[in-house]
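Notebook, student rotation project (T.W.).
Task set for the rotation: take a protein with a known small-molecule partner, predict the structure of the complex, and write up what can be learned from the model alone. Partner molecule chosen: calcium ion. Sequence and SMILES entered below by T.W., checked by me.
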Amino acid sequence: MDYYVNQFLSALLCTSLLFIANLLPVTAQAAAPIPFKVLAERTHKLTLFTQGLLVDGDHFYESSGLYNQSLLVTYPIAEPAGTWAKISAPFSKKQAIPERYFAEGLALMGDKLYLLTWQEQTLLIYDKSTLNYQKSLSYKGEGWGLTSDGKQLIRSDGSDTLYFHNADDFAVTKTLKITDEGKAVTQLNELEFAGGFIWANVWYQDRILKIDPATGKTLGELDLSALKQSLQLTNSEQVLNGIAWDEKRQAFWITGKHWPKMFLVQVTQ
Ligand SMILES: [Ca+2]
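Predicted structure of the complex:
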């Protein structure tokens, strides 16, 4: 009798473990790791609560979030010599975002910067060269990450769906579900379009997914946990959240919210 009870309990335990395993969130390791090397690092302003990051020529453009303190800034990629000069280097230009908005993702198309807001359903448009405000457009849902494939703007909202928008009126033209080995990938956040692919980080994770923009399938991932660990951050809100393709250097600049550094990461395959 004991034998059967044991068999029954073993079977029950196995079933329970399988059930629990199915309930666990889909984590890394499904997508193939993409090899990379770190070419350089530089200072990043600790005050910036990075939401969007992009490179245009020799300058970064970065949006920083939170209510009453959202900012849009630009600064040169090249740093001055000396530690203090680097830390205290001023922004080339800085634009305060009205206090009722929580700035989110940032994208460039032509001579305009497009800035999402988190829950205010408002897209703010700025002139690239002056950072002067130009106009607003409205949209439905949340704003998280934003990038451009040169034709359209691509938005994330924290779900597993990416939204393609016309730049003129910000109307949604199509949606794309993002999957990894057939499973939905939620919490998509900061985005970057580079080399014909969409690169997206997942909120609270140290990985960046390489996504096929036609199918939404994840083709591989950059595991940047070692970079983050090297910073010895103390606040759990200091998540990886900046991806900018540097055309000149053929590599990604990577940073995060209140990170003290930015890293130049080159894919090596
Ligand atoms: Ca970006």
